[in-house]
Design a protein that fits this description.
The protein is α+β, with helices and mostly antiparallel strands. It has 12 helices and 11 strands.
Length: about 400
């Protein structure tokens, strides 16, 4: 009798998970390094079955960010924004699944050790990172991934304020008053605001014009007017052909203050501060006619009208109906200042209003502006109701500056 054959017992071996070790180096964004300081980097381990979105979240945490924005991985290109690269981001419309970062596994990218690609975070501030695959390792039992393995250098703040200070009472970024007369700090602030764009005019000239303008504003008006004038000055530099090197510092200072006063009804006796626009020329010792002529050229070049939201002071912005009157889906207009906080939060998240009114009740004690302010042109209101960028900060006076870096698509 032959022996009965017994089939071997099948043993299911555990799946061996691989770990991809990436070095993520910050190579671009609104930050400046001190002399000899290295660019910040971190080393992150990610499981092969985890996604690009998992890697994004790990980088977000490693660089100590707190405010989520859109992002994109660019793989296969030789440099950031290379048109030959394959781009993976959050799903939008009919975007193909293979370009969806939330569904794209690390293992599916077929990366080789030493290969680099790029990660773009926040399409407004342009934080750009270079990512290199350093090694493919075996996963450690019981370890949680993604895992931060190493970090080098201090993480720059997500919203760098350089020589700017956070005004907690008003909730906006303003230029520190004590720094206005310091040329080096003014230069540093201008560079930070424009980064990565470069000034078209000499940086020293921009600094001198601003200091002259700010000295007048602080002495005769207020700190807010100085910030509005700085926004105007840098927009002139970046977005117009006006020759700032023609004319004296006082000429340009008078014109900038005149434009800011024109927008904010500085010559309205009910306004605070109040000044007749013609007196600006007298105080600065320039021709009234020349000041008004240069002011008109600035307004024409930058398409600025009365109550232009990007150049309103806080008090005027808070009372400006162009900002706070919205339209619902049924076509009815409503004052968002008078709605429940939840509605205000939704409007703020959608980028329709510069801040949540409920957070700043002192600014909204008088929701209805004076008749003179109501009489201003309202063409800009359509733009105010259709802001497309949901990541706007809370009422920054520098929203009017030109887009930094590349065109956002």
């Amino acid at each position: 009798m032959s022996a009965q054959f017994k089939s071997p017992k099948l043993v299911l071996l555990p799946k061996l998970e691989k770990i991809y070790r990436f070095t993520v180096r910050l190579i671009g964004g609104p930050f400046a390094l001190k002399k000899g300081q290295r660019k910040p980097l971190c080393v992150i381990d990610v499981r092969d079955e985890q996604t690009l979105d998992d890697l994004h979240k790990a980088i977000f945490d490693a660089f100590e960010r707190y405010d989520m924005h859109l992002y994109e991985f660019q793989i296969g290109g030789k440099a950031p924004m290379d048109l030959t690269s394959v781009r993976y981001g959050l799903p939008e419309g009919d975007r193909e699944d293979e370009k969806n970062a939330e569904r794209t596994r690390i293992s599916s990218l077929d990366l080789a050790i030493g290969e680099t690609f790029f990660y773009w975070f926040d399409f407004a501030d342009d934080w750009m990172h270079e990512i290199r695959l350093d090694a493919i390792l075996a996963a450690e039992e019981g370890e949680h991934y993604p895992k931060l393995v190493k970090k080098q250098g201090a993480s720059p703040p997500q919203y760098p304020d350089s020589e700017m200070e956070e005004n907690e009472e008003e909730g906006i970024n303003t230029f520190a008053p004590e720094d206005i007369g310091n040329p080096e700090k003014v230069k540093s602030a201008i560079q930070s605001i424009l980064h990565p764009a470069k000034p078209k005019h000499d940086l020293g000239l921009l600094t001198d014009i601003f200091i002259k303008t700010a000295d007048f504003c602080v002495e005769h008006l207020d700190h807010e007017y100085a910030n509005v004038c700085l926004a105007l000055l840098l927009l002139i530099d970046q977005d117009s052909d006006l020759p700032l090197n023609h004319g004296t510092l006082s000429d340009w200072a008078a014109a900038l203050v005149h434009v800011a006063g024109f927008v904010n009804f500085l010559d309205d006796p009910d306004s605070e501060p109040f000044m007749k626009l013609a007196d600006i020329a007298q105080y600065l010792g320039v021709s009234k006619c020349a000041m008004e002529n240069r002011s008109r050229k600035i307004r024409k070049a930058l398409k600025i009208e009365r109550l232009a939201p990007d150049f309103c002071t806080l008090s005027v912005l808070a009372a400006n109906p162009q900002i706070w009157i919205l339209q619902n889906e049924k076509g009815f207009f409503f004052d968002v200042r008078q709605t429940p906080r939840k509605v205000q939060e939704q409007a703020f998240a959608a980028g329709l209003i510069p801040w949540i009114p409920a957070d700043f009740p002192d600014l909204h004690k008088e929701p209805t502006p004076s008749p003179k302010r109501q009489s201003g042109k309202r063409d800009a209101s359509k733009k105010a109701l259709k802001k497309e960028d949901p990541s706007q900060d809370q009422g920054s006076l520098f929203d009017a500056l030109p887009n930094k870096g590349k065109d956002k698509t």
